[in-house]
């Protein structure tokens, strides 16, 4: 079966051929000595954090010379780190051009939300939500509501991701936690395209509040139904906005 080519969401809104000269000076500092992790893993973590935090946008070229100079590592080490990031779907190598932060496609969004529906509804259905977990969820939603009142889009997006990470964390599985972290890192790439739509995250703050209260009342089936509808709506909303 021949796969249908993926459709690009939009053309990049910035120069994709080079990064701003000073951004890497601001983001990166030389690695300190450490015994507990390989150097490529540590380099990948530094770059993953910058990408996940939205400090390096989709379509941005990752300049090998600048990054190796700033981190004090070899090109071989950096390329090994790039391979790790590519396996996570965060970067892509373009022939004769270099390595770029991945630009999400429609199929990326559909796949991300397929995975989220499985992970999050599974946690809602089977995990134990202790009183401490409920208080943590309520604390996150309270912070999100304050961020909404302050019109702080970045803080709303961060709280939203923390809320859903917390849902999956109640399954008490390090493997599921790791998978969810990778999924949310890819979500950050998608959210970077929503900077022109400041109201996008606002409605989902209310949805998270409602979900937390359903879980507090042990209404598992209602919580699961609410979450499924929530995620389907979010997926459709993203596709509608990002393909305009």
TrEMBL record:
GO terms for molecular function: DNA binding; DNA-binding transcription factor activity. Keywords: DNA-binding, Transcription, Transcription regulation. The keyword Transcription regulation applies. Residues 1-20 are annotated as: Disordered. Signal peptide: none annotated. Residues 37-104 form the HTH gntR-type domain. InterPro entries: GntR_C, TF_FadR/GntR_C, Tscrpt_reg_HTH_GntR, WH-like_DNA-bd_sf, WH_DNA-bd_sf. Residues 8-17 have a biased composition (Basic and acidic residues). This is GntR family transcriptional regulator. It comes from Nesterenkonia sedimenti. The lineage of its organism: Bacteria, Bacillati, Actinomycetota, Actinomycetes, Micrococcales.
């Amino acid at each position: 079966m021949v796969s249908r080519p993926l459709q690009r969401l939009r053309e990049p809104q910035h120069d994709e051929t080079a990064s701003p000269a000073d951004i890497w000076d601001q983001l990166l500092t030389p690695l300190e000595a450490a015994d507990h992790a390989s150097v490529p893993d540590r380099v990948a973590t530094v770059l993953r954090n910058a990408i996940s935090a939205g400090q390096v946008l989709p379509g941005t070229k990752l300049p090998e010379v600048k990054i190796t100079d700033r981190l004090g590592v070899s090109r071989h080490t950096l390329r090994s780190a790039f391979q790790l990031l590519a396996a996570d779907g965060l970067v892509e190598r373009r022939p004769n051009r270099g390595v770029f932060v991945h630009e999400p496609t429609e199929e990326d969004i559909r796949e991300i939300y397929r995975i989220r529906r499985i992970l999050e509804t599974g946690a809602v259905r089977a995990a134990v939500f202790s009183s401490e977990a409920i208080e943590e969820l309520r604390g996150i939603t309270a912070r999100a509501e304050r961020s909404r009142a302050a019109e702080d889009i970045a803080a709303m997006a961060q709280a939203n991701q923390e809320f859903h990470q917390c849902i999956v964390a109640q399954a008490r599985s390090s493997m599921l936690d790791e998978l969810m972290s990778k999924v949310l890192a890819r979500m950050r790439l998608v959210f970077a395209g929503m900077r022109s739509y400041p109201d996008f995250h606002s409605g989902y703050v209310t949805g998270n509040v409602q979900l937390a209260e359903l879980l507090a009342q042990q209404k598992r089936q209602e919580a699961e139904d609410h979450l499924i509808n929530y995620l389907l709506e979010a997926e459709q909303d993203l596709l509608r906005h990002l393909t305009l």
